[in-house]
Amino acid sequence: MTEASILFLRACLALLAMPIYLLSFLGIWEPFCKKIFFPFFLEKICAIHERKAKKQKQELFRNLPDFTSPSGELRLLEIGTGNGANFQFYPPGCKVTCTDINPNFQQGLLRSMNKNQHVHYEQFLVAAGEDLRQVPSGSVDAVICTLVLCSVHSVNDTLKEVLRVLRPGGAFYFLEHVAADRSSWKYFWQQICYPTWKLVFAGCCLTREIWKNLEQANFSELSLQHTSIALPWTPIQPHIIGFAVK
């Protein structure tokens, strides 16, 4: 009965989103989403998410200076920088390399850079999380990734790249929305929304159990906490937050 209910409700949601499915079939939706809709949507949703998650992020990034290299520099690499929502939490004087697979965030990114001039911005790379070949191995002290692992093609390959670019003793910081408990109504609604949500929001997957990927990755230390961020009427309330040490 549950499986049948999920399929029925998925079909109902797909009917409501039929114009987007049609645009996708015609090859129009993806370029429109990448260039216009998703950068606009991400800036709006990030503003809401930031208000709800600000205290958690302040606590998360509090120990970033602990990973300063012996040379006295703190070199950060951010995967999926988007509009630069994390810049405000970075320590003064740190050097940041920004990466994103989508190069269409310039306006929001420039606004964040102008607001956060305590950070030294080294470069912006158009790169997927699974392919950071432009970043030398062992060259950064910390990697930051928030609300990105939901949409990469491979979480495991992204974590392999994280481990490669981190120096020994460096840290990977994460805040990601994840699958709800499988016995919960939240998970039931995540399953219903999954196909349409993934299409509309540039490949964002609702039911990834990313904590399992982190537990299985080759980190020497993992500090991970399950939490909930109050985003009413959305299927992305369950989150994981923490950091892992190479």
UniProtKB/TrEMBL annotation:
The keyword tRNA processing does not apply. Gene3D superfamilies: Vaccinia Virus protein VP39 (3.40.50.150). The chain crosses the membrane at residues 7-29. One of its GO terms (molecular function) is S-adenosylmethionine-dependent methyltransferase activity. InterPro entries: Methyltransf_11, SAM-dependent_MTases_sf, Thiol_S-MT. Residues 77-174 form the Methyltransferase type domain. Keywords: Membrane, Transmembrane, Transmembrane helix. It holds the Pfam family Methyltransf_11. PANTHER family: METHYLTRANSFERASE LIKE 7A (PTHR45036:SF1), METHYLTRANSFERASE LIKE 7B (PTHR45036). This is MET7A protein. It comes from Grus americana (Whooping crane).
